[in-house]
Amino acid sequence: QLDLLWTRKQNVMYNLFDWPTQKHSKLIILAIANTMDLPERIMMNRVASRLVCPSIRLLFKIWDSSNIVHSSIALLFCGQKIPLQTCHAYFQVAALSGDARRCLDICRRATEICELASQKRTAEIVRMAHVTEAIDEMFSSPFINAIRNASLHEQIFLKAILAEFRRAGVEEATVQQVYHQHIALCRIEGMQSPTISEIMAVCSRLGACRLLLVESSNKYLHMRVRLNVSQDDVVYALKDE
């Protein structure tokens, strides 16, 4: 996944795309990215120049997680009529997480919980209570508790990171980029924007809690940050905020 191999000097990407250009090389590189214009968006010229060898870009249609979940449910029930409440419960899961794999994990666990309950009592269908229990299991972690107990500006900073990731299509950003998103969120909420020093303190605390991975650098605003938890975990932890 090319987005995750980005570094400031881009040495990893350069070496990766340089291998196929070597004499007698039989290597073919298949790279996946969230954006079609990733080479133009983030690649330095020296890296982009490695793409002069024959290269093809394929655009894959975006899959809707609810469609994937619905198809999987149909297979799970072997073509039987699916109870309405079960459909509703699973689509709630699809709406909660954009990651289809996470959705399917929750669906599978909800089905297991239902089967265990059926062994003790009469057989029953998968209900919202089973899905809720599966979600609580899946999203119960010290990190989620830390996010829920974080200060208001720490929570807004995490939201700002998600917003910047969505804007750039890359799961890494500078503190300055996140700061701009943070200010925009504060304006929407009618809150006073924090100062640079306050933002740096927020970033430091989140890094100390291991919610963020913060690059070590003297250029504070240009430090790069990444989430140390999944985006789904952050969304779930802040869904009531």
UniProtKB/TrEMBL annotation:
Pfam name, any one: WHD_Cdc6
Family to which the UniProt record says this protein belongs: Belongs to the CDC6/cdc18 family.
Compartments, as annotated in UniProt: Nucleus
GO CC term, one of those recorded: nuclear origin of replication recognition complex
Gene coding for it: Orc1
General function of this protein: Component of the origin recognition complex (ORC) that binds origins of replication. DNA-binding is ATP-dependent, however specific DNA sequences that define origins of replication have not been identified so far. ORC is required to assemble the pre-replication complex necessary to initiate DNA replication.
Primary location group: nucleus
Organism: Himantopus himantopus
UniProt domain Cdc6 C-terminal: residue ranges: 158-238
Record keywords: ATP-binding, DNA replication, DNA-binding, Metal-binding, Nucleotide-binding, Nucleus
Gene Ontology MF terms: ATP binding; DNA replication origin binding; metal ion binding
Taxonomic lineage of the native organism: Eukaryota, Metazoa, Chordata, Craniata, Vertebrata
Subunit structure: ORC is composed of six subunits.
BP-aspect Gene Ontology terms: DNA replication initiation; mitotic DNA replication checkpoint signaling
Official protein name in the record: Origin recognition complex subunit 1
